[in-house]
Amino acid sequence: MSHKSFRQAIFEALRQEMQRDPRVILMGEDVAGGRGAPGEQDAWGGPLGVTKGLFPEFGPERVLDTPITESAFIGAAAGAAATGLRPVADLMFIDFMGVCFDQIMNQAAKFRYMFGGKATTPLVIRTMYGAGLRAASQHSQCLYPLFTHIPGLKVVIPSSPYDAKGLMIQAIRDDDPVIFCEHKAMYDIQEEVPDEAYTIPFGEANFTREGRDVTIVALGRMVMFANQAADMLAKEGISASVLDPRTTSPLDRDSILESVAETGRLVVVDEAHPRCNMATDIAALVAEEVFDALKAPIRKVTPPHTPVPFSAALEDRYIPSPEKITAAARAVMQHARALA
Amino acid sequence: MQLSREELLRAYRAMRIIRDFEERLHDEFATGEIPGFVHLYAGEEASAVGVCQHLTDVDVIASTHRGHGHCIAKGCDVSAMMKEIYGRRDGLCGGKGGSMHIADLSLGMLGANGIVGGGPPLICGAALTAKTLKTGGVAIAFVGDGGSNQGTTLEAYNLASVWRLPAIFVVEDNGYAESTAAAWSVSGSQSQRAAGFGMPATEVDGHDFFAVHEAAGSAIARARAGDGPSLLHVRLNRYFGHFEGDACTYRAPGEVEKLRAEKDALAQFRRRVTEAGLLDAAALDAIDRESAAMIEAAVADAKAAAEPGEADLLTDVYASY
């Protein structure tokens, strides 16, 4: 056990799984970097250095740099997965799904069903998402709801280094296509992470705070913000649970419903665009299944329905904040008091 | 390349079964009993069989909308295919795929594909598997002239060349992408496109089994030797519409009748092998009878087979839940 960053946690998961299973390969744009260039090999390890060091250890047959050709290499990863390898493909930014979605949505996700259960596609697509780095509209989105919408895909959104390692190892060992979403503003966050390999099962939510008055459901980076909000609320005498589903597909419906049944109040925080996102999905689930337990209307905390802005002055207002989460929790508490 | 008597019989048998399968589907579709979209391969048999005759189960192919011929040439069970097209529970894909998604991965058949140009990137992956696991296999993407214009296909040419994959791209150019002429929609030429990616290309008459077989043999041998991808531009014709129900008003009057009379792949094959004394007519006639009986039985079995039930709706989405 030692202190590790989110970046190191993912690197360690990839490295340990590549050591364990020779069928695990890594491919993507600049996953090593410098290929064919006169200077350093393994020059990048991805644009944020997550995979740096894998190329010297595993070589060009298992760490494959690709041209900038998402359709071809994401499709190749799907085809390789269906024929015996266990590829981890690096879709650098989630926003680039636009140029390769067919190979994910119509090919990899549907092989098993279309072929009558006779295909397995053990594919992991790592991809960076999220706002906060002033990366503007085409490099900052949280498009995981679009993947969650597709039957046949599993979608993982880790909120801490510990979870990132365990969920990545689970993703690589899983026999279905997994979209593994890494928030680009979280790579330097550190915590204690075991040195040995371990897995965290999909579809099992994690409570990062336990409380009685209100359930705050949050994903990815928003879990940190929800924790900060819960700590602020505690000082005001409001006891909040923070529930991190960890995976949006499968979704741990039971934990969400049980928690809301206990607290009677729900705030859902989602950094994704507000229409048809995880907040609407979870709000609908709760309204349908435990309506009678609700003491107040469900509150969603999301960005506005706009592209992600560039200017820091705008982006900081765009992203859900601990303060906005706190305000939403206060609002549901006040509503309950009005009833009482 | 001199083919043995057994190989010649095998080739004719596969082509005959494809033809009978498709001609029969054309008739059965007209009765309204077959659901969905069906795209028939009749007229193109020499391409699928000329290529796939070189392959074993370690080799992988990806097909197109017009996939029945590739499935049969790769060895898929004809009766299970027919049941699949009728949407039956015992179909090759449990009735969940249908005509456009017939697959059998155990035979290296990675599926017909409902997305034009869907297959070439997948084939880069299958070729990467062969290369990485050193199976000795090759991977082949069949693409139509329509699919040849998709970015996925051109990206796959590049990736296969950059990674030096054991891949072959077989462009089956039947002259029409749906209703639009290839002469209008394909800029440059298929061979020039291959050259642009540093791939060798061969143009071949797709009505001539022997020409396809020889050209495919060279491309496959090159891939197996580790010398990288190549392209075959196969010129051929389809006898039916893009889909069943297509009135084909875009085709010239008498076009198909003339092709059937002058270019037919099975008639050419029969004439070649009997005139050369390689096979006698009686042996071919026997295959004709065997194929007719096989298709008759497959249709009868498919019509009688059970449909999927309520419980089948929710299964097969994930390997683990």
Automatic annotation (TrEMBL), chain A:
What CDD domains would the database entry show? TPP_PYR_E1-PDHc-beta_like (cd07036)
One Pfam family this sequence matches:
Transket_pyr
Task: Output the SMART domains linked to this UniProt entry.
Answer: Transket_pyr (SM00861)
Q: Which UniProt keywords apply?
A: Oxidoreductase
Record domain Transketolase-like pyrimidine-binding: where: 4-189
Q: What GO MF terms are annotated? A: oxidoreductase activity
Identify the InterPro entries for this entry.
THDP-binding (IPR029061), Transketo_C/PFOR_II (IPR009014), Transketolase-like_Pyr-bd (IPR005475), Transketolase_C (IPR033248)
Q: Which PANTHER family match?
A: ACETOIN:2,6-DICHLOROPHENOLINDOPHENOL OXIDOREDUCTASE SUBUNIT BETA, PYRUVATE DEHYDROGENASE E1 COMPONENT BETA SUBUNIT
What is this protein called in UniProt?
Alpha-ketoacid dehydrogenase subunit beta
What organism does the record attribute this protein to?
A: Acidicaldus sp
Lineage runs: Bacteria, Pseudomonadati, Pseudomonadota, Alphaproteobacteria, Acetobacterales
From TrEMBL, chain B:
- Cofactor(s) the protein needs: thiamine diphosphate
Give the record's keywords alphabetically: Oxidoreductase, Thiamine pyrophosphate
Annotated ranges, domain Dehydrogenase E1 component: 14-308
Catalysed reaction, written as an equation: N(6)-[(R)-lipoyl]-L-lysyl-[protein] + pyruvate + H(+) = N(6)-[(R)-S(8)-acetyldihydrolipoyl]-L-lysyl-[protein] + CO2
Q: Name one GO molecular function term.
A: pyruvate dehydrogenase (acetyl-transferring) activity
InterPro entries (alphabetical): DH_E1 (IPR001017), PDH_E1_Alpha_Subunit (IPR050642), THDP-binding (IPR029061)
The keyword NAD appears for this protein: no
Entry keyword Oxidoreductase: yes
Q: What does this protein do?
A: The pyruvate dehydrogenase complex catalyzes the overall conversion of pyruvate to acetyl-CoA and CO(2). It contains multiple copies of three enzymatic components: pyruvate dehydrogenase (E1), dihydrolipoamide acetyltransferase (E2) and lipoamide dehydrogenase (E3).
Superkingdom of origin organism: Bacteria
What protein name does the entry list? Answer: Thiamine pyrophosphate-dependent dehydrogenase E1 component subunit alpha
Q: Name one GO biological process term.
A: pyruvate decarboxylation to acetyl-CoA
